Amino acid sequence: MASAPSSQPLPSAEIQAFAAEHYAESGAARFGIEQAGVAALLAEVSGQRGGEALPAQHLEELVLTRACMAGHNGAWEVFLTRYRAGMYEAAYKIARDEVTGRALADSLYAELYGVNERGETRASKLRYYQGRGSLAGWLRTVIAQEYVNQYRRTKRETSLDAAVEEGQQFASETAAAPRLDTRVEEATAAELATLPAEERLVLSAYYLDGRTLADIARLLRVHESTISRRLDRAATGLRKRIRKRLIAAGMSARQADESLEETDVRDLKVKVSETLRQDESDLAFYKKSGEEG
Amino acid sequence: MKHSIPKSAQDVVGRQAAPQEHPSADLLNGFVEQALSGAEKEQVTTHLAACAECREVVFLAGGDEEAPLPAMHRPLPVASSRWTFWSWKWVVPSVAAVAIAVGVTLMRERSGQPQPAASPTTSMNAPSVAPQARMDETLTYKAAPEARRDVASESKPVGQKKQEVVAESQSPAALAKGKDTSSTAAELGQLKAYARDEKQSVQQRAPYSFAAAGAAQPAAPAVVIKNDAPRLAAKSLPSAGPPPPQRPAAAKPQSASPRDSIAIGGSLPDAFYSSAAAAPASQSKNEAQTVAANSASTALPPSRTEDSSANVLHKSKAAESAAGPSEVAAARQNQQAVQQQQMTVDSASGAGSLIEGTPVSVRFSDWRITGDGHLERGSSSGEWTRVLSDQPVHFQTVAQVGNEVWAGADDGVLFHSSDGGERWTEVRVSKDEHRPIVSIRFRDALEGTISTDLNTTWKTADGGKSWIKE
Questions:
Q1: How far is B395 from chain A (nearest CA, A)?
Q2: Which of helix, strand or coil describes residue B225?
Q3: Fewest CB within a 10 Å sphere: which of A266, B105, B260, B285?
């Protein structure tokens, strides 16, 4: 989904009218960008966004990023004044460690500036900003992405001493978890597929990641009790519907109940780790990172 | 664990294959800030449900701090520090004055004492109007076509006219030149009457907001009625109870005198100017005194009231000859007080943009949704009271039409009050609707629509008893 802008589609009449209407408020004039330039920028972004609504709310920030990409000193001054402090603060909060946070922010700043080792045209990471949300939020998200990537990279680089200490050379092969009855699996998969995406997201965040109700509520901008109700509803509904499917598939009511019986929840966590190819630990990623940070 | 799904479901959820291609940071940020359109949001949500890494990113990017709410959910500013200061300076003394007057009147009524006769200044101009007649005038004052026509015939805009009046009245040179005192007095009367009208319109709204806030003070306007001219009482009557849903379209009798128009058309400065322009100069002099007395005794703090009343009574003896600079200054002071009160009331009603619908003749309470999803009602003093705080929901939107207040929350929960927010009932548009209600639009008390965040629209034509999906 992430793709760098490549083509320069011609602005449509609608985009040109939009650019004319919002040119003054976009602040493009102070960076030497003419109305035609704003229209071209909008056409580029609109093309990348599949014709979604034009970014009127964040047009000024979009123009600022493009002016920074073009190397406009005034634009960089504005950018640094507005976003530098927030960028570093967000990096500290995400990494929960001043050194790591500073390294993250420095690294991102270099990428935003577009340092090119081969001496070719400067390619700034700012070109990926398309104005769907605020620029400050985009910077936070980029830092979070970089942090997650960095965590994955560093966790693979286990030192020999650490491996010996952990006794990895004596580790036995992990026993494969017993698979479920295929009928149960099919019925469950079919029922889960009928759930709305947001319900599945709530289930994943709660059961797989171990997020709290408050965390999920904050992300989805709903009340904590709403998440609680949704989980209750999902649990009750899923159980009923899966049981119904199992009986329809030939199981007796008792067999269906037994197959749906709860087992040790640790089994789930082992499987989650395997499936998501994460770490050996049974803890969710964010908890581990928090402990280590 | 309180919430438990079948283990098989947990397994299947856990075995979801993580997608190879991840959404861009721009899309993820749009999801965090809830700025994505329907298709993009669905796409990203579906991905997040299956991708632990991206879930981690969005929780890291948006979890630690409160993300900015969308514009429609953002709590509106209560008032700037400037207006807050003025609200305390003017509203509190005004409320105190009204409260004292209420108490005094109630005590008099209970003790059976005869009502004091109206002051000479007021009785001089106050016709004896039966209460029912006053109400009729009140209900029909807006429909007076003559007043509008007179306004239209006035070529100068109201603001310009006011400025001219002030400038001419203030100018000592103009006074020294022997300007026609009767015309000056007439213009001064206009100025004072305008100030009175503005002050009354502010007063007329303020008590209603108190009543809606739970501290009903139905007697407050009655005090004004008894202590002041009946015309003022006629104007203040609607605020004693719930305002009529719609002003009747009955036209005011054409024989009504211009002075009646001045007194009745309180909240309409244009109506005043139309009548004042037609009023003879001799009437305007008396009108100026009446207006000053009325406005001083109704809106100003007690000490200020005494001063102003004394000032006006003193001037009533000398006003026949000329309008002095001190009177002009007093009028300007009154006008400034009115403006400050007006600003205070306007600034306190910060949630106006949240309220949709077509208000007819109702003073809205101020409603807002806080950043953490609580419903709050504002008072004219700038204080916000949390409403339905015991409900475990996250409010999304609120709307008011008349006394009907609707508040939408997440999980498809809708709350309705038919008495301006005193008593609430929970309404379910459908047992299957669990999406947050983000928009409420009511044409009147019965007919309206609500929308969820997925643009599902439900319509009612019976005040929320039944809902039809559109």
A1: 8
A2: helix
A3: A266
Contacts of B242 (CB under 8 A, 6+ apart): B403, B420
What pLDDT shows up at residue B123?
35
List pLDDT tens digits, range A248-275: 888 888 877 777 775 333 343 334 334 4
- Contact A192/B67, CB-based, under 8 Å? no
B452 φ, ψ to 5°?
-95, 175
CA distance B67 to chain A (A): 8
Which residues, listed in sequence order, are joined to residue B385 by a DSSP beta bridge? B377
Higher pLDDT, B183 or A189: A189
Q: Which residues of chain B lie closer than 8 angstroms to A208, CB-CB? A: 13-14, 52
Euclidean distance between CA atoms B149 and B151, whole angstroms: 5
pTM greater than 0.90 (yes/no) = no
Determine whether the interchain pair B30/A229 forms a contact, defined as Cβ–Cβ distance below 8 Å. Answer: no
The structure tokens listed for B311 are 């000032």
Which residues of chain A neighbour B6 with C-beta distances below 8 Å? 188, 238-239, 242, 260, 262
ipTM exceeds 0.85, yes or no: no
A226 part of contact set with chain B, CB < 8 Å: yes
What value does the mean pLDDT take over residues B439-446? 85
Residues A64/A119, Cβ–Cβ less than 8 Å:
no
| Digit-coded pLDDT (tens) for A5-58 | 445 556 778 888 888 888 888 888 888 888 888 888 888 887 777 666 666 778
Across the interface, whether the CB atoms of B9 and A191 are under 8 A apart is answered yes
A144 touches chain B (CB under 8 A): yes
Coil, strand or helix: which one is B25?
Answer: helix
Instruction: Decide: B271 and B151 in contact? Cβ < 8 Å.
Output: yes
